[in-house]
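RETRY 2/3 - previous attempt timed out on the joint model. Re-submitting the same 861-residue input unchanged.
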Amino acid sequence: MRDKTNLLVYPYDIEFTPILRHKWLLDGYEIKALVSPSGWGLDGSDAGEADHGSNTGITVTSDFNGMLEHCDAVMFVDTYLKSDFDSIIYPKFEMAINAGKNIVCLIELDGSKKKCIEKKCKENSLEFKYCRIKDSFNFEESNRIMVLLDGEDERITEIVVPVIFVAGLMERMQKFEIQLFLREYLINRGYKISQIGSRQYCEILGFHSFPDFMFCNTLPETKKILLFNRFVKGIEQNENPDVIIIGIPGGTGIYDKTVTNKFGIIAYEVSSALTPDASVLSIPYGNLTPESLQILRLSAKFKFGFEPDCYNIVNARIDSQDSKILNKVMLNWFDAKAIKGLLNYNVLGNGIFNILCDEDGNSMANFIVDKLSAHSEIEYIK
Amino acid sequence: MTGEKPFIHLFSTPYGYYMFDVNKNIIIKIKKPVYEALINEQQKNDCNSEIDEEVRKEIEILRTNGFLSTKRPKEIVHPENDFVEYRLKNDIRKMTLQVTQQCNLRCGYCPYSGDGELQRTHTNKRMSFETARKAIDFLIHHSKEAEIVNIGFYGGEPLLEFELIKKCVEYIKKKAEGKKVSYVITTNATLLNEEIVEYFEKNDIRISISLDGPREIHNKNRRFASDGRGSFDTVMEKIEMIKNKYPGYFPKVGIIMVIDPENNVACTNEFCTNCETVSEMNVLPMIVDDNYTEGKVFIPDDFIKKRNYELFKVYLYELGRVSRKNVSQIFLSQYYQEQNDFANIRPMEGLPEKWHHGGPCVPGESRLFINADGCLYPCEKVNEKSEVMKIGHIDSGFDLNKVRNLINIGKLTEDNCKNCWVITHCKICASQIDSENGLSVEMKKQSCKEVRSTVENLFRNYIALWEMKYMINKINVSP
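RETRY 2/3 succeeded.
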């Protein structure tokens, strides 16, 4: 059995925590160290503090140099907190290469930096694994598909296999954690899963990234919907799964007039391309009532054609003041374990979970499976 | 019965009648007969008196649109009460370090220049680097969610500890990798020299200089401790030095101007306008703070008249009737602040059952103040001798019970607050009601009257300007 590659992950923050919590998905890798810039406040803390969930047993450090000797490769990862690439991140690439470590890159690099790092790795006989899906749209491939599509009418092909959508009202709604949890849960129960993740480097976790063409500026929106439909159909035909999980990037709607979440365009296009058999909508904690959930349900129904089957209530609240000032959704996080005491489950009913809280992950997955099972008991005659 | 009356506040101007709906948090213009009917109902507790059918219909339309709700909060609890632990664990944005308690001036209005009964006095106590280091580590550890933090240096006169400030900045550069840090120092400027300014420029440290106005006004209060000499000439010399030798850095230097109502505000205005150097700078005016002084600040009628006249000129400027040079920068800043406050008013769908009056921040989150001993306070304006205000220590962290005590001051006057139309716009915080014996109900009730008056004036001023703009547009459009 091939030895696993010992990994140092840098720079660690909340963005990587879902992968850490499901680290077995990183096939061939063993996470040995999590390193954060000292100013991010995680130094000396358990890595679980990053997403305010349970402890992971791994302590974060700021000692990049010191941890290098314990690893074979350094994985550079996307983060929520932004720091200057040239002064903080790039020097770590150089340090890793100088220390003879292979590079695994999940960060989007511009062309020149990518070439430069690739070259340095080559010069030092080191592996450089760039895990982002193609950054630039493949015009040849798209032109080929467009020719095929041009000749057809705009029909949607039916996806026969059950499909689960994972969507969030806005960004940073723990969607990726839910996607990875469901994947792990279903695989462990013997299901064959095909998956399209909401991020751009999911191949390293064993499934598809959200396709690049969906963000292309030159492709008409109608073609994107059709392409996505064909993309999923292709996965269904080639991989023959028991269920398909699709994580939808971005948010499903506007928060207010200043924070518009790109108007939920991607969610609309995905839900136009295919209809889910079950869905999870992740929303921030707030003044939740049966009436507000009803509004969400109806909004999704009329905008996207499906009603969420269950909700993930994120252990974070919207900071209205900061969101208005900074023109983006700003959240105030609290410990996931506190959410049980804050939600009135008797009033809100079934289908309310927090993915980081105790057994809620399993309960949510059971809920979804029960929904799919109930569906499968009805034999549809075409 | 109070609970049955619509939760509204009615007011009129010479040109109109207005209703502020507390549940919807909106001001609307209403017709005079409707206004009179609603006043009647509010004052005489008489909902069933005869009113005109037309007026009844108009009132019904308001009700149908969600106005005139009688709903009031059932319990006074701050909305952040359940979350303070997490806010303070992750969201601290600003920290001010008291690097020294000593100062080379003895300003007349400074709370530390007193006899030490109510507030601490100036002492030689200084923050050790060990304490500063712990404070910086504390901030880093408690600001995980903040992309940028601000660190302020305060005193006494912080430039007495320039070496400590440098050590702090160098330590922050090492320990705060990945975090954006901005700095500010509040200083009397008398100790500034080129070496210090160069260091501040190199490390992007903004300066707030205390300058109270022209020579005679500034020197009335701001005097050197050594010989009682006024500090104006020294301060101006330092400001000119920065302007002439560091022109690129000069925009990062601002003025804090303490307005003593007993002084001639017109002279201060003139100084801000006519002094070429000062007219280029950002001026933040502040009325003398009398929260922790024995005697309260007396505001003479003359000051009020002159202030109102200056505000009137600001309105004329906003209406395009006078030029900018005729307008006081001091009162223009105040006006913009008021406009900003008003613009931030968001409509609501109704008061929650658990609500609290505006005013209390989450103590320590937005402006954590750490004194020379490492004690934690909500901000630099509170009394360091007050046990109520001491919300923790850098070694032991926050005392959450004390923090909750400070954000839930509405509990002191719970029944009053539940029925107060200013509830969402109140500005009373714990520092205004902090007495020798703890948080004072009497002081709170006294502050309540002032706040109601202030908020009503805010609404009236905004409405007055709106009315004037409307009428001018009408005049301009008419043939």
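The mean pLDDT of chain A is 90. Closing ticket.
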